[in-house]
Specification:
Blueprint (H helix, E strand, L loop, with lengths): L1 H14 L1 H27 L1 H21 L1 H12 L2
Helix pairs in contact: 2-3
Length: 80
């Protein structure tokens, strides 16, 4: 029974090969299109602002966790 079902599925695939090939090509093209759209966004003003914001967040995270900022705050606190 399962052999018959698989044979029918294979037969359907072979019969609709052009459709399956077209669907695969559409999927490849969609991936490229999404990549191009992402590249356009990253090159836009909003994309660049988002990148800058991301880098500033990373810098703040590193700076806040570093020892030198603690030393600076301590020095400011003691008036030195």
């Amino acid at each position: 029974m399962s052999g018959k079902n698989r044979a029918q599925g294979l037969s359907a695939l072979i019969s609709n090969w052009d459709e399956a090939k077209s669907a695969l090509e559409d999927a490849y093209n969609a991936e490229g299109s999404a990549l191009r759209e992402s590249e356009k966004y990253m090159d836009s003003i909003n994309g660049r602002i988002a990148q800058l914001d991301n880098h500033l967040e990373e810098l703040a995270s590193v700076t806040i966790n570093s020892e030198w900022i603690k030393t600076v705050v301590s020095m400011l606190d003691t008036g030195v």
